[in-house]
Amino acid sequence: MKKIIVILAVCLSVLCVTACGSNNIESIENTENTEIYVFAAASLQNAMNEVAEEFNKDYPNVHININADSSGTLLTQIREGAECDIFFPASTLQANELVKDGVVANTENVLNNTLVVVSSKNSDTAVTGLSDIGKAKSIALAGQSVPAGQYTRQALINSGVLSSDKKAEDYTAAEVSEALEGVEISGQSNVSKVLIAVAEGACDVGTVYFSDTYGYEDKINVLEEVPKELTGDIIYPICRIDNEKASDEQVKAAVQFYDFAAHHCGHIFLKYDFEPIN
Hints:
Elements: H1 2-20, H2 22-28, E1 34-41, H3 45-58, E2 62-69, H4 71-79, E3 86-88, H5 92-101, E4 104-113, E5 115-120, E6 138-142, H6 147-158, H7 173-179, E7 184-188, H8 191-199, E8 205-209, E9 220-225, H9 228-231, E10 234-241, H10 248-263, H11 266-271, E11 275-276
Helix pairs in contact: 2-10, 4-5
């Protein structure tokens, strides 16, 4: 029922865009060829590729360069001077860091997601979910700076496996392994690599987002959807970055893409198993 309600809300949003979107199109329809740089969480890659395709139907003169990786890696790249117009991380933590840096022109929360424990389709693992994940032969776990890894560590804190004396992002893979009585931890640099490690059988189980399982239904078993009471809300904010290197045309295109992705693409994100907030 919840998903049906979301679908109906998104459909109404799409109808509104169809009726009211012409003024938006006019704002950059005469823009010369330009390029914008979109830094998106790895879990968003497939959805953002489709968002870009839809955007280019109205704005073919805007080339959208998508850099998909862990939100922590992208944050570091931006801080080190990489040119970025749009930042779309898998956690408000990374967005808030850039807000503190004073480089965010606009930001708003766009999507919800759910952390899941997964195994390969052919696995004989004894694990049924997070509560007995220590039974695994090996666990694929995203790193400390990766939101999926942080949410997993937070869930282990809230379930009493890890101590609350430290922040989730401060727990190393070795410390998680020790808390789980020595289970092998395979650290991964982003959530997509966690998914591949499990799907290919390199690791017994792993934790990814529910949206990551889209297209992997024949390779992955979802053992558990981890309750939000353990992970906290998994929110994806979109940020428009104040890119000092951008031309006027690039800024105009970035503003338009920000609005399009934030307000007019709920049906696309829903297709990839994200839950649009608005």
